Amino acid sequence: MHNIQCDVAIIGGGPAGLAAAVSAKKQGAQKVLIIERDTALGGILQQCIHPGFGLTYYNEELTGPEYYGRFIKQAESLGIESLLDTMVLEVQPTGKIICVNSKYGITYVDAKSVVLAMGCRERTRANIQIPGTRPAGIYTAGAAQRLINRQNEMVGREIVILGSGDIGMIMARRLTLEGAHVVAVVEIMNYLAGLTRNRVQCLDDYDIPLLLSHTVTRIVGNERVEGVYVAQVDENKRPIGETEEFYPCDTLLLSVGLIPENELSRATDIEISAVTNGPVVNQFMQTSNPAVFACGNVVHVNDLVDNVTLESEIAGREAARYAMGSFPQVKRRISLETGNNVRYLCPHLLDIADMDEQITLYFRVLAPEHNVTITAKSGDAVLYKKKAVKVNPGEMEHVTFKTGEIPASSDCVRVDVTKEV
Ligand SMILES: Cc1cc2nc3c(=O)[nH]c(=O)nc-3n(C[C@H](O)[C@H](O)[C@H](O)COP(=O)(O)OP(=O)(O)OC[C@H]3O[C@@H](n4cnc5c(N)ncnc54)[C@H](O)[C@@H]3O)c2cc1C
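^ thats the input. predicted complex w/ flavin-adenine dinucleotide below
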């Protein structure tokens, strides 16, 4: 049995874990340890060789490996340690972590504070239950991305993609560049699930059709996919039988959503949000267990890694302050209310200390809308007000304000997205 002591232990060495580690070390934590199940740091960005990363954080356009490479360099120069090829099995409420690797076997890590940064995983065919046979040639978009970009394995030639999430659209372009024919991207909603910039750069630029309000109703094929049936859906997302059409193809890619990786968090007994499926956190990215912090896609699914970095820097900094005994004394709790057309807010609540803190609340809308006003209000005080030409569930929005502007008589901040009349 192997034992390790540290100040801050970070579970997951993707962009969230790396940014949290660098920030914790810069804040003054002596021993910061990243525990990662993969044999290398970088997380999912290891397979994201396309550009588009770092536009807001670095004001530069980088590929995934270039983006996380900068954090690995910083982590190395700051003396941050990492335990690779190591799977975390359990995080106990006391902060003790139980993990396993082939070198030491079962290993115990005793940390003064813990940062959860385990990312997310893709929804699969089983999650959405598409009827039909079970032939070869059905992949999640991320699995296909890994096979093509890291293992140099082509997944197919005639491709249908279900779901207009960012990974699906990026893979539509990738497969086209690799010589495949992408027959169509099929989306059940009547709006795009991912970023508009990905629609323009990955579908429109390559003449790849996007079928909104359509879905795959059946998969056909014995050994290998031979085709799929695609139908238009009604306003209740039920397929309209007479619109069903057969699309011959040898491969179906699924880009139908991401699920925060929270098996460890659930077993740790921290509060989980029913909407985001991630830990409930305050503005310090602190969970309902004061010694446990969380950041990145494990909290809520982000569309841009730049935002992941910003919130992970907060998690790392605050986990370090907790470990060093300098965490702020909380004076009052402010609840955050989702108003009109707001699906969730992250962080989920505010724990106000003495200082006048700058807060950024990230959120997604429930439905697309044009010409709206985004407001954050507390009692009679308007903390934030901005007009937006359009909002879309696929693109994360945010509001900012200072905690000092929340009236002493109010214990709630509400965010609304309202159509201008
Ligand atoms: C297939 C795919 C493609 C994506 N493409 C893009 C893109 O092009 N652009 C973009 O901005 N965003 C993209 N994203 C979103 C992307 O996930 C985030 O931008 C960013 O990678 C999130 O960082 P993270 O550190 O939270 O998660 P991740 O990058 O997923 O890192 C989590 C890390 O935790 C480790 N881990 C998990 N559980 C354990 C455990 N029990 N023990 C030890 N280690 C563990 C994992 O191995 C992984 O390395 C993509 C996501 C996926 C799934």
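The mean pLDDT is 95.
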